[in-house]
Design goal:
- The structure holds two protein chains of two kinds.
- Chain A is an all-alpha fold.
- Helices cover 61% and strands 1% of the residues of chain A.
- The radius of gyration of chain A is 19 Å and the shape is globular.
- In chain B, helix 1 crosses helix 2.
- The model of chain B has no long low-confidence stretch (mean pLDDT 72).
- Chain B has seven helices and six strands; from the N terminus they run αααβααααβββββ.
- Classes of the chains: A mainly alpha, B mainly alpha.
- Strand 1 of chain A pairs antiparallel with strand 1 of chain B, so a sheet runs across the interface.
Chain lengths: 218, 217
């Protein structure tokens, strides 16, 4: 299971913009760090940006998918966010990591999308990793709910998606970032532009709503 | 020395569900734990919340279908090109393409041909108008004498353009103080009319074209 990288790099306030990084022509792009790749992409090297896209597309997709509950919408959102980031690469000052920056762009795109299409929600479920069978929460749930594993999986997935979609956009975003993607309150606050207190408050009330929505499963 | 913290059930649930133990001070953690041990409602609620968190965390096992990202980069490039070709960025990009300039030359040549055709049509219309103007006959001398009396112009050129006309004038004797207005009528191109008022309304100029007789009149 992949967990998100630490989202935010600590940097002093008013830190000067990083100087262009000298590029080693011998190193393969796949082995270069984000700063080098960003510097190359700024100079118009699309191959360098492709490496960045390849590196983070799955995590960005996971965020968009859990927020929308739909493959196609998630794909569109991530594509649009990546294009927006590429076009705005010159505005990237390097105060945070590239992943943090692009994650925030994806968050904004996703929130705007979800608010715009609030009434037109339709699900297309992801596949489930077989490792879920060893998860204690899943074992406990299946032992109570249904002996038929396949039905249980699909039903569980459907119920979870529906419950998440019934939360407001801000509450859903916090639950996805914290409980699914494993981010800290501080990182969520920075990614959503709110305070940590707001994040905790949203998380608390979102879980209370989820208890009501999933009461027959807990 | 341990400080006793008083917390309500709602506060305990909030702390228990949204904070990790290391995020709170020791006194608050001890208070929350003691409260959860003593208050059944809060303990049950806390357990339910933990189960909900566990359920939601099962979504971590969801993965996109196999091959979902196979065409991701190709799709990204396609969309990026489409985006680049829209708006001002697209205009600038097109201007940088050689194909655009070859097309521009073709468009320029087509435009020049069109302009030539329009100019030819306009020139033909203007020459036709000139021919019609030069065909206007002057009235015979006796008719002019009848109409103009002693102020008959002795010669007038044929008009060379709709607004240009040269008139040779023989000054009448004894009218050195008179002023004259130049009037144009449909059948006779030029007519000089003394401006001495015959009626009150004659003081109002009927044409903007006026001239004064020379000093030697």
């Amino acid at each position: 299971m992949k967990l998100p990288l630490p989202l935010f790099r600590r940097s002093p306030k008013n830190a000067p913009a990083p100087q262009p990084v000298p590029v080693s022509e011998t190193a393969l792009p796949q082995h270069q760090d984000d700063e080098t790749l960003v510097a190359r992409a700024r100079r118009g090297d699309l191959a360098a940006y492709d490496v960045l896209v390849d590196r983070y597309k799955e995590r960005l997709y996971a965020l968009a998918y859990h927020m929308t509950g739909n493959h196609e919408d998630a794909n569109d959102l991530v594509q649009e966010a990546l294009i927006k980031a590429y076009r705005s690469l010159k505005k990237f000052r390097g105060n945070s990591s590239f992943y943090t920056w692009i994650y925030r762009i994806t968050v904004n795109y996703t929130l705007n999308h979800v608010k715009r299409r609030r009434r037109h929600v339709h699900f297309s479920l992801d596949d489930v990793d077989t490792a879920i069978e060893t998860d204690p929460h899943f074992i406990e749930l299946m032992s109570h709910v249904t002996p038929r594993r396949e039905v249980g999986l699909n039903e569980l997935q459907q119920r979870l998606n529906e419950a998440l979609q019934k939360l407001s956009e801000n509450h859903r975003m916090v639950v996805v970032m914290h409980d699914i993607q494993g981010m800290t309150h501080a990182d969520i606050a920075k990614a959503t532009g709110t305070s940590e207190g707001t994040v905790r408050s949203r998380l608390f009330y979102a879980r209370q709503q989820l208890q009501g929505l999933l009461s027959d499963l807990i | 020395m341990k400080r006793r913290v008083d917390l309500s059930c709602e506060q305990v649930r909030f702390y228990a569900e949204t904070f990790a133990a290391e995020q709170l001070d020791d006194d608050t953690v001890a208070t929350v734990r003691r409260h959860l041990n003593e208050c059944t409602d809060c303990r049950v609620q806390h357990q339910r919340t933990q189960r909900v968190i566990g359920l939601v965390q099962l979504k971590r096992y969801e993965q996109p279908p196999p091959g979902y990202f196979d065409n991701f980069l190709a799709e990204f490039h396609r969309r990026q090109i489409a985006t680049e070709r829209s708006g001002w960025r697209g205009v600038r990009a097109r201007l940088a393409e050689p194909m655009t300039w070859s097309l521009a030359w073709k468009w320029a040549a087509s435009g020049a041909c069109g302009a030539l055709v329009i100019a030819a049509v306009m020139w033909f219309g203007w020459t036709s108008q000139q021919a019609a103007l030069t065909a206007i006959p002057f009235a015979p001398a006796d008719v002019q004498q009848e109409r103009f009396g002693r102020h008959t112009p002795v010669a007038a050129s044929q008009p060379t353009s709709p607004i240009e006309l040269t008139v040779a004038w023989e000054p009448p004797t004894g009218d050195t103080d008179a002023t004259y207005a130049l009037a144009l009528t449909p059948d006779v191109p030029v007519r000089a009319v003394p401006t001495a008022p015959r009626y009150v309304l004659d003081r109002i100029p009927v044409t903007t074209v006026r001239f004064e007789p020379r000093a030697d009149f």
